[in-house]
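Notes from the 1:1 (GR / supervisor)

We went over the backlog. Supervisor wanted to see one worked example end to end before approving the batch request, so GR pasted a single chain during the call. The sequence is below; no edits were made to it. Supervisor asked that the structure be written out right there so they could see what the output format looks like.
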Amino acid sequence: MANPIHEFANLPRKRAEGAPAWRERAAARGEGAAPTVGLIYNPRSHRNKGQDLDSRVAPDVIVAQPGDRSQLPEALARLAERGIDLLVINGGDGTVRDVLTCGDAIFGDDWPAIAVLPKGKTNALTVDLDAPGDWTLQGAIDAFENGRRILRSPIAITPLDQPGNRALGFILGAGAFTIGTRAGQSAHRLGAFNSLAVGVTTLWGVLQTVFGTRRNPWRSGVRMELLLGQARAPFQHSGKGDAARRQFLLASTLERLPARLKPFGALRKGLKLAVLDQLDRRTTLLVPIVMMGWTNPGLRDRGFHQVSAAQFEMELDDQFILDGEAFPAGRYRIEPGPELEFVAP
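Structure output shown during the call:
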């Protein structure tokens, strides 16, 4: 979808209150009735380009194909009015982010079941949900009746100077993560996608950090203040490098990541953070095995931090990334969003 979602002022502000009309319509159909399915189709998603939409699956599939993000709220509102039981998102992680962000004002804390067809350059959410790469609309409809239901809460990101607006997504990163996302775009142009792109970008980042100087942006990090919980406790620092700068930040509510990465160590549930202080070259050599889940009691002293948090605030002097798209520097509150029910095979 086309327009920058980080223009928070352009997002719908009204929050849903009480039991929305769509839920009442869905309940009125009664047990045993065929589900009404709403499909958000993004023709710009990587694996949808050049493909014709085939929705000839069931008469109760309502298709919305918004031209850009500005049309998403209206499209979702129409689906809500029809009382859909299942919302199918056909696209990648960026499409999911856009749909959840724009639907936040429509569905509030009471969403229909959601299925995601992995059609983007990156599909981290469907890796976590164990959805097959060739999952179809019909497969998602069948799974609504006979598949699994997996609960996940996206990350809710609110700019502190615009408290009426927020964005929802699943993977937030800053520092070297922002640089790595730009490098990942180069990997995409070379034909590397999904787990391969993650692996290529990680390897390149490690090489830059090991052999680069302190002026290298991979090593210099960004000015970053982190405050944990409602008490806004300052995030710990190892004393390695500049205490005002962090080399890397990653936050997510997903429990499994692409390429079998485990940057949060043994932490699985809820909102998790992995933060690196300014590492020396020798410690940087540990990054690949830490990212694969290796832990050691001395990691914090070396500048690696893996924590869970009910919420946190961050202030950055550089852009951060949410599900592949850049958001501006500033002060933000990050917390779990609504608990969503995802359909999986």
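Supervisor's comment: The chain has eleven helices and 19 strands.
Batch request approved.
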